[in-house]
Amino acid sequence: MSETVDVPWAVTPEKVEAVARKSVEVSRPVRIILFGSYVRGKTDRNGDLDALAVTDDAVKNPRKEAVRIRRALRSIFMPMDILVAAESQWKALEDRPGLIYQEAARARFEASRQTRTVRMRLRLKRLFCTTTQGRRYPRPEHSGEPKSIQ
């Protein structure tokens, strides 16, 4: 982070992990992409978390899904923008200039090289198990090692 952030609404790795975990529990997206100032490591006391939940195409109204996810995150005291896009919409728009999807795609690529993001991915990987189709779901509390869901 660019400066010490000691306000109660600060974006912290623990809160970001809680947002990711709760979003997956509520919506079961294909993927969650974090982007913006937090991923770039430039969060200050006025920063927020930008997250894009890419859902499968069965979700008919992404705006309502974003509201549903945001309501589930009410207990996390942190400014955040939660966007939702169907997978087909994401694939069609991720490279289109001038849209937020391009920033999310670019940040995802750039962030993969940052140590903090790698650590976050490893932490999230321990929380989820992967199905045979490549979808990730919260790991049952009682299980030890990741197992594929058949």
CATH architecture: 2-Layer Sandwich
In what order do the strands lie side by side in the largest sheet? 1-2-3
Strand content: 15-25%
Helix content: 40-55%
Provide a count of the helices.
Answer: 6
Number of domains: 1
Most strands sheet: 3 strands, mixed
Strand tally, please? 5
Gist of the model:
By secondary structure, the protein is an alpha+beta fold.
Any key phrases for this structure?
150 residues, alpha+beta, Beta Polymerase, domain 2, three-stranded mixed beta sheet, two-stranded antiparallel sheet, 6 helices, 5 strands, disordered C terminus
Outline the structure in words:
- With 150 residues, this protein is of the alpha+beta class.
- It has helices spanning 13-27, 37-40, 62-72, 87-93, 100-111, 115-127; strands spanning 31-35, 49-55, 80-86, 128-130, 136-138.
- The protein has one domain (13-138): Beta Polymerase, domain 2 (2-Layer Sandwich), CATH 3.30.460.
- It contains 6 helices and 5 strands.
- Strands 1-2-3 form a 3-stranded mixed beta sheet, with helices on both faces. Strands 4-5 form a two-stranded antiparallel ribbon.
